[in-house]
Amino acid sequence: MRQPSSRRKPSAIERSSARRKGWLRLTRTIVLGTIAAVFAIIWMGDQYGIEREVMYEFLATSALFVGLLVVAGLAGAALIMAVRWLFHRRD
Predict the structure, then answer these.
(1) pLDDT digits (tens, 9 = 90+) for 2-58
(2) Domain count, the chain
(3) Which residues of 82-91 are buried (b: 16+ CB within 10 A; e: fewer)?
(4) Domain containing 78: what range?
(5) What's this model's pTM, rounded to 2 decimal places?
(6) Fewest beta carbons within 10 Å, which of 52, 61, 68, 91?
(7) 41 and 77: one domain?
(8) Are 18 and 10 contacting, i.e. CB atoms less than 8 angstroms apart?
(9) Can you tell me the distance from the alpha carbon of 71 to that of 10, in angstroms, rounded to the nearest whole number?
(10) Residue 66: closest CA among 30, 29, 20
């Protein structure tokens, strides 16, 4: 025979709070990881004798490329959502 669980189920507010804390931790980790990676790349450039201005240009170009990929992904998602909306509207 099973014993009733002494643990109660978390409420919606508690679940929402835990989810928010998870997102905040993830965001903090991403930001700190990005900062650490940028400093590591600059440090490596100094070790190999690459000028700082050139390194900053490389980092800016990389950030622009990543930004363009994000925009392309968002545009693709918007296009898919628009096509789905058009097909569901016809039904």
Answers:
(1) 555 567 777 767 777 777 777 889 999 999 999 999 999 999 999 999 999 999 999
(2) 2
(3) eeeeeeeeee
(4) 51-91
(5) 0.60
(6) 91
(7) no
(8) yes
(9) 38
(10) 30
